[in-house]
Every structure is written in C-alpha cells, then in structure tokens.
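User: Sequence recovery, please. Input:
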C-alpha cells in the first residue's frame, strides 16, 4: 500500500467529497496519509472540509486533514496536487454564458468565447501555483481538473517545469457507456482535444463494431450539464465516430444558441442553486457520505478518474487512462508540443501515449488543428495580455469567427472581468 500526501487547491468546490470518496474506495492500494484542503473561500473551505473529515472518520481512516488558505504551506510535502479552481467563481461563469448570447455567440464555460475568458482568467493564477510547486514540492505531480482543462494543461506543460497530467470525466463516461453496450471490455480508440474528442473505433474480439452500433442508434450518454439535441446518423458517419457531448456545440450550434436564448436559467444559475443546496446538506453533521445530488453538478465519475490516475502513478501500475498530455508524435497531424486527449499507460514516470492509427478522418484533423490554434493563441493572450493574440484566437475558433461581433463581445467581457485580468491592464 502506497502512502501519499495530497493537496487539493480549490477544495471549497462541492466536488471535493467526490474526490475523497474515490480514495475511500481504494483502501488496499492507497493510504491517504495527509490531505490538505486549500481554498481562499473560508466559508466553502470549512463546510466542504468538515464533510470530508466526517467521511474519512466514518471509514476509519487516520488521515491527517489540514484546511488552509495559505498556498505555500499547503504545498509542503505534497506528492500530488489536484487543481480544481474557478477564478471569479460561478458569477464569472454566469458572465461567460450570458454576455456572448447578446452577440449571437455561444456562451459556454469551456469552449467558444466564454471558454476563452475562463482561460484568460485562470492561466495567470495557475502560473503562480506552478511557480510555488517548482519551489516547494518540485517532485509532486499536478493533476489538473481546472477547466478549460486542455488549455490549462497545455500552458503548464509548455511554460512551466511542473510534472502535470490533465484530466476530465468525459472520456471515462464515454468509454464506460460503450463497454456496457458491447458487453464488457473492448479495444476502443479515443482521440481529440479536451471537450473536442471522438471515439473512432470499437473492436471486440478483433471485429469492428462501429457500423453495427451506428445502425442500432447507440450514442454515449450526454453530460448532465448539456441539453441533448442528439447527433444525426449521417453527421456521425461524416465525422468518423461518436463525438463527445461538447461537440454538440459545434454540430448543433443553432439549437444550442436557441437554448441559451430561451432557457429561463443559465447553467451557471442552475449550478449556483445546486451548490447552495449541497452546501446546506454538507452542514448536516450527520452526513458522512457524498449525496446523490452531487451527480447533478456535472462531476459524474470525477473521483474514479482522479483516484485511478493517482493510484496508477503512485503504484506504477501501467494502467491505461485517457488523459491530456503532450502529443509527442502520437498523432502525426498535431505538433509534438500540442496537448491532446488520448489514451496512455500511466506509471511512476507519468504517461506513455498508446499508439493511435493509422487511419485519420480529415474532418477530425481539420477541427482539431483549428481549435488547437485557438488554444495556443489563447495561452499567448493569457500570458502577455495580448489583444492581438486574443483576436486571432476568436477569428480561428469555429464557434466565434465574425470579427466585428466577437470584438464587441470581447471588449464587454474584458471590462466585465477586469478584476481577474490584470495582465490586460496597461500603464
């Protein structure tokens, strides 16, 4: 059994009990020696942290739990650092979702112009966290859940010296749905960028099942935070696989924009309500387990993804996980320093990509390269406070495009988020 010290940055997130639950389910492989819960929000840190303590005590675990708002002390002795921060909290997400709609643009927290502004706010904060990790616990692994996960992980791996793997619960949900449908393990090809990914092959006993599953109308379940408008069969055949839920914003753009305009509540408002319900539940001193309501927050199987990955690194298992890592030649149409979402063998030295290929669908190639260009421009804009890089990001992104509309939206959003965009304030 491997003893580990884990630091969670953004521990006030109502997802945190999900993470603790994951450790409780691995008593034979991981001993959580020390858990540091760091968050700048004292109210949420305390409420969520107290539930985590009760969960650990009920399970009979003698884990030392520390709650703090001090980043430096939180990192001392960490073997793993889990980041799940939200700069500006849910009110900032509300702006990301609602301002773009006024300009007939998709408002969403991880893609399009809303996702871009989340990255612009987040990358400077992640840069500071990584600087501290380099100085205080340079051997620690950073497991990044902070959205937009692919962009943030791309920044960390290309602009810091931190050992980092990006993670998302979308792949594990998709793969489990497919395995359940085909009756057990299968050889599944999954590739893309975070929130821009596809399953392009499903083989069982060497037999390709994609066409059969297409004809049967199978589709992986859509994430709880996305209205399901479905995918047309010809759309699936054209793109060469099953798209992840977030590609509904690309393939069903008009329907999604209609929802955003007509919905009585934005997703951010719904999340605010769910979060307050959860926090109220968490204050019940008799509650010692994660409540079922947590699944409605959108983090289904978050603990399974995170703790399985940590287990694989800590115990050098070589298990295969879909993660966000440097491409390093895995997908020949992407640059080596592009962070992509692919399967990899996970061990003590990190992630070793599983070979993919040899067939490439031109549609997937085109969309991945365009959105990766947007991601790289966004990182440049976030680091330097560079408006020109941001304009390029918007013009190249398939969900943004039109310069006049996007520029007007950009200026309004930049002003609305001014408190969290110090890099854009010029002397």
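Assistant: Recovered sequence (427 residues):
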């Amino acid at each position: 059994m491997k003893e580990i010290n884990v630091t969670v940055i953004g521990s006030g997130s109502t997802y945190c009990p999900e993470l603790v639950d994951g450790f409780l389910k691995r008593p034979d492989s991981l001993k959580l020696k020390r858990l540091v819960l760091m968050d700048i929000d004292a109210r949420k840190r305390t409420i969520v942290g107290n539930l985590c303590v009760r969960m650990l005590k009920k399970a009979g675990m003698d884990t030392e739990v520390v709650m703090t708002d001090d980043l430096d002390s939180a990192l001392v002795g960490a073997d793993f650092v889990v980041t799940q921060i939200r700069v500006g909290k849910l009110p900032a997400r509300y702006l990301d979702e609602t301002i773009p709609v006024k300009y007939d643009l998709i408002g969403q927290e991880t893609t399009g112009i809303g996702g871009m502004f989340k990255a612009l706010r987040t990358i400077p904060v992640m840069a500071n966290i990584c600087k501290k990790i380099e100085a205080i616990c340079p051997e620690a692994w950073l497991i990044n859940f902070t959205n937009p996960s692919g962009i943030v992980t791309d920044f960390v791996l290309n602009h810091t010296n931190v050992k980092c793997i990006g993670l998302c619960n979308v792949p594990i949900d998709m793969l489990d749905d497919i395995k359940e449908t085909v009756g057990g393990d299968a050889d599944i090809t999954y590739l893309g960028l975070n929130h821009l990914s596809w399953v392009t092959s499903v083989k069982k006993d060497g037999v390709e099942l994609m066409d059969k599953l297409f004809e049967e109308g199978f589709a992986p379940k859509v994430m709880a935070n996305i209205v399901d408008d479905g995918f047309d069969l010809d759309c699936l055949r054209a793109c060469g696989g099953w798209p992840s839920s977030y590609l509904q914003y690309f393939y069903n753009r008009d329907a999604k924009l209609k929802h955003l305009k007509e919905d009585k509540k934005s997703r951010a408002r719904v999340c605010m309500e769910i979060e307050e319900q959860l926090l109220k539940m968490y204050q019940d001193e008799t509650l010692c387990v994660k409540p079922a309501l947590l699944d409605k927050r959108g983090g289904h199987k978050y603990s399974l993804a995170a703790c399985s990955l940590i287990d694989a690194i800590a115990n050098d298992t070589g298990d295969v996980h879909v993660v966000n890592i440097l491409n390093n030649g895995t997908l020949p149409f992407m640059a080596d320093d592009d962070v992509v979402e692919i399967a990899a063998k996970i061990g003590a030295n990190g992630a070793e990509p599983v070979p993919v290929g040899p067939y490439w669908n031109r549609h997937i190639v085109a969309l991945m390269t365009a959105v990766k260009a947007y991601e790289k421009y966004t990182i440049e804009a976030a680091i330097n406070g560079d408006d020109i890089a941001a304009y390029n990001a918007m013009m190249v992104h398939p969900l943004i495009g039109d310069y006049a509309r996007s520029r007007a939206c950009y200026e309004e959003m930049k002003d609305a988020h001014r408190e969290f965009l110090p890099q854009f304030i010029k002397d």
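The chain is about 45% helix and 20% strand.
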